[in-house]
């Protein structure tokens, strides 16, 4: 536990994550150039979700925090996703 | 004499605040997805007027600034104060560049007569009014968070210089970083939803 608490992430790790994030951003931009219809928005959202996972886990240090922090953040993310899905399905099947 | 200090509680408080921020923007995303579903044609056409290049550029700037502030914490904890301050300085400059781009972007639209309540926009129909209304409100609220984040980081810089924040007591730096990453996190979703609609 103490070991985890004192964990210092090396510079190289952050730079690697930054490279991945920029690559994902460019992928997301390139993907919109291809016509995929309704799939486009899903691909964009999936890439955004992957990016946010990197930001929260590494930049925001969640990977090395206690389970409580992780559960709180995951809970809120899930809540927002559920509210959006429920609202949209209401409009879709009205 | 040791003053009582509880870094974990301080960080927990920051995270709880960030969760409310997520819910605030989450609510706006619900509004966005509903209006986009009801006005998909207008949203697609209106989104073409946003400059994808500037949007991509700003995304990369914000991601980089997130990386520099995260590295700054590592530097501070390794007791490398000068490097920590330099990285925080770079973060502030990147944040200002982001705001400057936003200023040019908004200025471009406002000169074209597209702003909430404008006649030009009203003539273009309901969908366009909703798209640009949400665009101005959500990117505006995000920009406000950038400004708050920059002020927060400014305080951290002063505290590091005065040695109130250092390798032993860095929770304020960590919290400012968390706030800044949240701003980045929100932009990660705003960017594809406004700039990458085809």
What does it look like?
The complex is a heterodimer of chains A (94) and B (198). Chain A has helices at residues 2-5, 11-33, 39-59, 67-92. In chain A, helix 2 runs antiparallel to helix 3. Chain A is 79% helix and 0% strand. By secondary structure, chain A is mostly helical. Chain A is flat and about 55 Å long. Chain B has a single domain, classed as Four Helix Bundle (Hemerythrin (Met), subunit A), CATH 1.20.120.80. Helix content of chain B is 82%, strand content 0%. Chain B has seven helices and no strands. Chain B is elongated. Chains A and B meet through helix 2, helix 3 and helix 4 of A and helix 1, helix 3 and helix 7 of B.
Features:
heterodimer; A: 94 residues; mainly alpha; 4 helices; 79% helix; B: 198 residues; Four Helix Bundle (Hemerythrin (Met), subunit A); elongated
How do the strands and helices of this protein lay out in sequence?
The complex is a heterodimer of chains A (94) and B (198).
Chain A: H1 2-5, H2 11-33, H3 39-59, H4 67-92
Helix pairs in contact in A: 2-3
Chain B: H1 7-38, H2 40-47, H3 52-77, H4 81-111, H5 119-123, H6 126-161, H7 171-195
Helix pairs in contact in B: 1-6, 1-7, 2-6, 3-4, 3-7, 4-6, 6-7
State the order of secondary-structure elements of chain A, H for helix, E for strand. HHHH
Name the assembly state.
Answer: heterodimer
Structural class of chain A: mainly alpha
CATH topology of chain B: Four Helix Bundle (Hemerythrin (Met), subunit A)
Largest sheet of chain A: none
Query: How far apart, in Å, are the first and last alpha carbons of chain B?
Result: 63 Å
Mean pLDDT across the residues of chain B is 95
Order of helices and strands of chain B: HHHHHHH
| Number of helical regions of chain A | 4
Low-confidence stretches of chain B: none
Radius of gyration of chain A: 17 Å
CATH architecture of chain B: Up-down Bundle
Give the strand tally of chain B.
0
Count helical runs of chain B.
7
Q: Let me know the largest β-sheet of chain B.
A: none
Output the CATH class name of chain B.
Mainly Alpha
The CATH fourth-level homologous superfamily of chain B: Cytochrome c oxidase, subunit III, four-helix bundle
Largest interface: A-B, 44 and 42 residues
Measured as a percent range, the helix fraction of chain B is over 70%
